[in-house]
Amino acid sequence: MSAGPNNDDWVWVANPDHYILHEIGDSTFAFSRVSGTTHMLNLVSRAMLDYLAEHPKTLTQIIAGFAAYLEVPPEECPSGVVRRLFGELDEVGLVERVEP
Amino acid sequence: MNRRALSDYPRSDVIHALRSGTLALDLGPFLTRIKLSDRRSIDFFRDMYAACPVSIDKAVLCDFSLCLRPPNKFRKYFRRQIVPDPGFQFPAVPLPLEMSPLAFEMGLNLSVALQCFRFAIFHAGVVADGDNALIIAAKSGGGKSTLTAALMEEDWRLLSDEFAILDLDAATLKAYPRPVSLKNASIDVVRGFAGSGQVSDTLHDTPKGAIAYRRPRPSDIETMQRAAKPRLILFPRFTDGAQAESREIDLADAAMQLIASSPNYQVIGERAFSGLMTMLEGMKAYEIEYGSTEDSLALVRELWKAHVP
């Protein structure tokens, strides 16, 4: 399922039972047990995956809270970047939509 | 299983076993039943695989089965052609009969690449210094086989010219020492340092250009059950006239390139991922560029000395 047009009633989560992580240097490899594919994540994508694994969130909550999670000022983490990062994780199936 | 070196069997027994499809090649982790009917592929097999253990007992169970056959009855008699038949439907382009050694080697590659699921397979050459392995990963034409053959002259063990075969439990590489495939200009280069007697006749005008094969040495066959722990990954690039240089690359990038080169990684799934990640622990990866075989060997010596105790 792609992020595509989003509905703020939708909540998203990263389910650690559905992937395996392995770090090599500054990169994290994520093997999706759902798709059987391997993905390479940078530090920020990895942080978003961890952020979404904490508990389900709407996209609005993700955009509003991710900068604080990274402990950086909001202007260093613009909403467009957060949307794109989230969209990439959604596109490859590492985050899932769940019932609220 | 009763097995001996191919060269220990009487010629007539080998030819009969090949023609009737009862010969089993016992190489590295795979047993392959082979059926050949044309003289050229039989001569090629008897020459290049002379030191390999085989059985001519038809009761032996094999991992793979490979038959070289005409694509249809017509092509058995007119403008004779041949295709490798690994026992499953595959869109192999028929080759002229005189290219049957190429069809044979392609067939063995197909068998391993598409039918092996016990090990993760990556497209790369592998040589070993004792129990430490060097992975030579390259796209076709990048110089992988020439470098592999050159390292054999420096007493590295040949594990494989074509496949890094990863034991998923031990994170070590298995040997599958088949002839090294040489293309175009590299044929004379390898003949120059290995000697003409170590290289097969050249097949001209194949779909890949001129092709010849450097035979594995008896010592490669004798030590083929000895797995090796990979320590270094090289991505070689031969560029005519280039200055020799090496550049360390991110191991994560190297991993993604290996995954992209694997025919069975996606099928094996989680075990392949875990095995590959374990294999990569502590490894280093480099791109090397060079304009001569001497330069490539000097780069390998330097990097190996720097990273492998």
TrEMBL record, chain A:
Superkingdom, taxonomy of origin: Bacteria
InterPro entries noted in UniProt: PqqD-rel_X
Name of this chain's protein: PqqD family protein, HPr-rel-A system
Organism: Kordiimonas lacus
From TrEMBL, chain B:
GO molecular function, one term: kinase activity
Alphabetical list of InterPro entries matching this protein: HprK-rel_A, P-loop_NTPase
Domain of life per record: Bacteria
Record keywords, A-Z: Kinase, Transferase
The protein, known as: HprK-related kinase A
